[in-house]
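Lab notebook, bench 4. Still working through the backlog of constructs that have no structural model yet. Next entry is a single chain of 472 residues. Request: give me the structure tokens for it.
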Amino acid sequence: MRIIIGGAGRVGTDMARALRAEDMDVVLVDSDSRAVKNAQNLDVLVIHGDLTTREKLYEAGIGEASVFVAATNSDERNLLACALADHAHNELAGPKAKPLLSICRVRNMNYINEQNDGKLQAWAKVNHVVNPLEGAIRRLHSGLRSSAIEEVVPFGHDAFIIELDVTAEASQVVFQKLGEASQKIEGGMPLIVGLKREGEKSLVPDGDFMLMPNDRIAVATTGLSSFNRILNIFGHEATDFPAQPRVAVIGANKIGQRIADDWLESGASVTVIERDLQVANSFSGTNIGSHPNLEVIHGDHLDRDILTEIGISEHHIAIAALEDDLASIAAALLASDMGVQRTGLLLYDADLVKVTQRMGITFAVDRKRVAVDNMLAQIHTKTAGGYAILSNIPNIIGVSMLVSEQARFAGKRILEASFPEWMRIAFIQRQNTNGTWESLRPSPDKTLLVDDRLIIFCSPERVADLEKRFKV
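Model written out:
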């Protein structure tokens, strides 16, 4: 399957790398000569040129393409490229051609609303728009529950993958086979779907695998309340998360407003601190700004007197999501220094995410990585749509597969399905009788039903094998 990606920045190149790991035919197009040069080390065709010109789309093979992704930094350029790509594809492939799947990265909420209203596809020929902000906010919200968690990946319907290290204090599990340890742990061993050991290749461990201190693991779990149990089992000290936390949000820009709304919806009390008087007043006049549990403060978030006046030390969480990453880091560090125990960041620069962890920031989210995951999920819409790359456990991914009537294991228990050892089912997502979705633990006796969605972890090169097994 040929996939053309417009934009060879970090999002485009990370997508290309992930898709090549699945042996996809990938083409990158970018007008920036430096970006093109940096992408030359990838095992893909890289074309230097303007994505919004028909000639470059011809050169990229748009007639044979199945997917077109516009991932430049311009919403308008991305939308125009999708419309042109759709026309060029139909022109070259003819009337019997399969439709081109187009995916567009956007930031402007007006375009998101057009998509939600079902109008964007008509005038821009875009099948899916991706705005990573919502996914990034969900990850940040989940990750702030513990300083020991390296990463949280939500899979919807209360399902999460959390990444953390195994410590020497995990006496119940270290130096023991997973199967044996599970028999000794009340409620059983948490489900490990991926593992990375220093100097060794990542793997999906089986019951005979022996855990060692400093192993980095990815654990499947349902419900935020399960995090503390997992932390305790693997040797971390877990602290209770307040039911109604006090949250300080630094900055009343659109990102800050959305973060504030997210925490208000979960029952928190929120204080927003904004330097610009006009921005602060504008936010106060919105629907969110009138919430009884929200207070908007006009003042400098780096002024200790103002922070003392608002009682910053009495807040459980401080989150900075300013337009400048370094300014966000400075704001979070000051809040931490003044007594806030949990600090969070939404960052643009992936390298800074790792740096902030060493600084003592509780949790930071790489917004561009969320964009990559969201776009890969849309590319894999031939499955049920879920897709995630584990950030700390390379070469292990999660994909969502739909149990169809054609699948030979439909109606069978997992124990009877003869699934290979190279894959691990993390969740069964099923629609119940009242129409809502729930995430179930994949116990061996659980029966797989038609239309179940299975979240499965494996290496990227095994995705094609999975699709064959699920009759995709």
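Notes after review: The chain has 16 helices and 21 strands. Residues 75-93 form the longest helix (19 residues). Flag for follow-up if needed.
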